[in-house]
Design brief:
single chain, about 375 residues, mainly alpha, Cytochrome p450-Terp, domain 2, 16 helices, about 0% strand, globular, binds coenzyme A
């Protein structure tokens, strides 16, 4: 098949009332609200509520929701034992995928009153799962997975760094979780919807999403971008290195997008935050390297950074290890996946497309004795 028409590019694969990507100008909206307004004025928990329940919470609903998420942070003992068996060198995305599956057995959907409660449970418990596994294998510590932090961003940083989080880092992480929360029919959301369309359970649909997000063409791009940026010590060195990669027809991770054609509005929001963090960071020179790569990619390929490119340095300057970048994407995107699973279920029809057959023409089956 022609590459340009492959990959379902431009195909309308269903209806949604959750999000628009690139529809109003270059924009992105969640339930009709512009991402710039949400990133400036809301918090991740507010956005999670908006996506899952369909409207913005009032002050009391938001406070109750935050308290609810805080109560849902405890990890079942059996899951803790399992996390202790998983080796440290495992990809953290595999840890989350497996943990999600295990939770589906320990707390099955048929025991849950409302599907929304599973979404909330996963948002609340995933940071603890990831960091319980990490600290146990790093230092043998069985950390408490509760914290006083009301926000998911603050909770994650507290469990990771073991201290009250730096307020600027907490703010940047909170904004980034808002930016990563939802993006219409991207690959992982579509995978989650396909699973939901078979009337499978909520956990299976989320597990499909995690497995799909893991790839470097999707969620894994933020880690790949960091790996690229940190190869270089100066902008000139970065320019030479990226030119060579382009000459070798390699893809530069964190650039390009299937839907956006001129810029990614989320990049415009995370970029200045990364720049500000770089001013205080010991390896803040990485920001100048990113800027040079951005300029070169535009000049040579007319490609712009997507959310993953400047998120990489923003996370790095918050002292988050690179292998947690894609898992953070998961923690945020559970909200979008959940909204889509609920929407798919409300008006479900099995998603089962057709294929254009390009194999051999119909032929006679030869008996074993007739084969050469
Ligand atoms: N670096 C270098 N070239 C790129 C590129 C990148 N990041 N992204 C696209 N291109 C080039 C392709 O090589 C291709 O060139 P060609 O026509 O000469 O073969 C052309 O642009 C179209 O790319 P294609 O991969 O067919 O576009 P797509 O719509 O299928 O892919 C992405 C979209 C996002 C998968 C793609 O841009 C990409 O792989 N980006 C890097 C991974 C990434 O950042 N993913 C996160 C997305 S939010």
């Amino acid at each position: 098949m022609n590459k340009k028409i492959g990959g379902l590019a431009g195909v309308i694969a269903g209806e949604t009332a959750i999000c628009t990507v690139g529809k109003e100008g270059l924009g992105l909206t969640y339930r009709g609200y512009d991402i710039r307004a949400l990133a400036t004025s809301s918090t991740f928990e507010e956005v999670a509520w908006l996506l899952i329940y369909g409207q913005l919470p009032d002050r009391r609903e938001l406070q109750t929701y935050r308290e609810k998420l805080m109560r849902l942070r405890e990890i079942p003992a059996i899951l803790k034992q399992l996390l202790e068996q998983i080796p440290l060198h495992t990809n953290p995305m595999d840890v989350l995928r497996t943990a999600c599956s295990v939770l589906g057995m320990l707390e099955p959907e048929q025991n849950t009153h409302r599907a929304e409660d599973i979404a909330n449970r996963l948002i609340a418990v995933f940071p603890g799962i990831l960091l319980y596994w990490y600290h146990f294998h790093q230092s043998g510590n069985r950390i408490h997975t509760q914290s006083d932090e009301e926000t998911t961003a603050g909770h994650f940083l507290t469990l990771l760094q073991g201290d009250k989080p730096n307020p600027e880092w907490r703010h940047v992480l909170d904004v980034s979780l808002i930016l990563y929360a939802e993006h219409e029919f991207n690959a992982s959301t579509f995978a989650a919807r396909i699973t939901a369309s078979t009337e499978s359970d909520f956990y299976s649909a989320i597990t499909s999403g995690i497995g799909t997000l893991r790839g470097p063409l999707h969620g894994g791009a933020n880690e790949a971008a960091m790996e690229l940026i940190s190869r270089f010590k100066t902008p000139d060195e970065a320019e030479r290195g990226v030119r060579t990669l382009l000459e070798n027809k390699e893809k530069i991770m964190g650039f390009g997008h299937r839907v956006y054609k001129i810029s990614d509005p989320r990049s415009d929001i995370i970029r200045p935050l990364s720049q500000k963090l770089s001013e205080k960071a010991e390896d803040g020179y990485l920001f100048a390297i990113s800027e040079r790569i951005e300029a070169l990619m535009w000049q040579e390929k007319h490609l712009f950074p997507n959310l993953d490119f400047y998120s990489a340095t923003a996370y790095h300057f918050c002292k988050i290890p690179t292998f947690f970048f894609t898992p953070l994407f998961v923690i945020s995107r559970i909200t979008g996946w959940s909204a889509h699973i609920l929407e798919q279920r409300r008006d479900n029809r099995l998603i089962r497309p057709a294929a254009n057959y390009i194999g051999p023409a119909s032929r006679t089956y030869p008996l074993m004795t007739e084969r050469a």
